[in-house]
């Protein structure tokens, strides 16, 4: 077992080196997606696959989660729904929802009753980890894009804005081309259907402010160049309208995406 | 003046060779988009531009239409709404709606009162022509895709199915790769939100049936190869549920699309 670098307070997460099933379910994926976390006396383990046709609208691609916690199937469903809404339902690779999306959770009860809050925390962590791995492994992707929308009037508004940006072909191509195209981002916000005021929006690439109160700030080329060297890009949108937040995960759109999607033969 | 080959019964359509304004409004467009039709004693002339960020949701990109027919502004608005819903609002290049979509019609009344039905016919023809020219000239496009959906329960259902297919990145990449990927088409229908029965759907590429009653028919490779040599592809979907129909226009997604969209510098 190998310790993960990324962890959550109080959660010990592990990656198994030898899980053959995580390898066996892959199709065009470049990387295995698996995780296990241990909290108190219970464990949650999970694997997933997914690379293209990723824009989940129910649960997700293929994701199998197991735990030894003792939980009723009704409660388990509610826990999974909460986690899936934060994770699998907030990723998009190509805006094409698959007919085969699936997230399954199985509990055998061997570890006995568990603390509900901690279980939800652990499951959120596991699902978010897998969702990000799927987005990062998107067909032809060269980097993960994370869109964090702050201060929306409702959570649904925050989700709409985050998903509109992460799903825009033009935004994805601009990121592939290392261009901080705030115009395409504002355009995607405009198409999201969410409530916002143009003159209030701030847009950041990592910590660098590109747009302030809806106006271009004139970005620093050297800073943007440094930011675009990383294999993860954080886009932050501050709507300054309310108190709700959401984060969506996706990837850039590369020449390789079109090649892979075009060369497939029916 | 040069006669167009494509015409409508009773409508004489013309392309002017010397209209400099149709040239002047182009940005990344490869081709001018202009048309004039003469019906009875009145004329409708129009130009448009558009290539990327095309997924109109009100009128369209930039489209300027003029006529010498005598029509009230209220009636003119209704005529244009009807035509735009059949044309500009049924095209998609990249699913990204622009902030600057616009279709304008101006009437100076010099030709006097006109037959309303004929005027609507003429305006439909003009708008459909321009919309198709825009779809054909989509960024990086190598061919026009026309999706005709038949026998839906409502017109809205037919429109949803047609637009879902024309907007799917995976369908567009498959067409670029000359692959008759009926699976991606059925998947897009599934994501459209329209009413349908899987076991009833027929899918055709031109006259060649790929799917019958929801089942793959085993296509003829040589026939498909011939079909994919044309610079227009007609995809027909027969839902066999009702009596309504709609047609959407788009283009394939090529490596050039990503190159053009990625190399743009803010």
How many DSSP H or I helices of chain A?
8
Count of beta strands of chain A? 13
What series of H and E elements makes up the topology of chain A?
EEHEEEHEEHEHHHEEEHEEH
Instruction: Calculate the terminal CA-CA distance of chain A, rounded to whole Å.
Output: 40 Å
How would a textbook summarize the main sheet of chain A?
7 strands, mixed
Overall spatial form of chain A:
globular
Average pLDDT of chain A, rounded to a whole number, is 88
Largest interface: A-B, 41 and 40 residues
Give the topology, please.
The structure is a homodimer of 266-residue chains.
Chain A: E1 2-3, E2 12-15, H1 20-24, E3 33-39, E4 42-49, E5 62-67, H2 73-86, E6 91-92, E7 102-107, H3 116-136, E8 144-152, H4 155-167, H5 169-176, H6 182-190, E9 202-205, E10 208-212, E11 215-216, H7 221-227, E12 232-238, E13 244-251, H8 255-263
Parallel strand pairs in A: 5-7, 6-13, 8-12
Antiparallel strand pairs in A: 1-2, 2-3, 3-4, 4-5, 8-13, 9-10, 9-12, 10-11
Can you describe what's shown?
Two copies of one chain form a homodimer. The first copy, chain A, is α+β, with helices and mostly antiparallel strands and 266 residues long. Chain A contains eight helices and 13 strands. In chain A, the strands form two sheets. Chain A has a seven-stranded mixed sheet, with helices on both faces. Chain A has a six-stranded mixed sheet with strand order 1-2-3-4-5-7. In chain A, helix 2 packs across helix 3. The first copy, chain A, starts with a strand and ends with a helix. The N terminus of chain A is likely disordered.
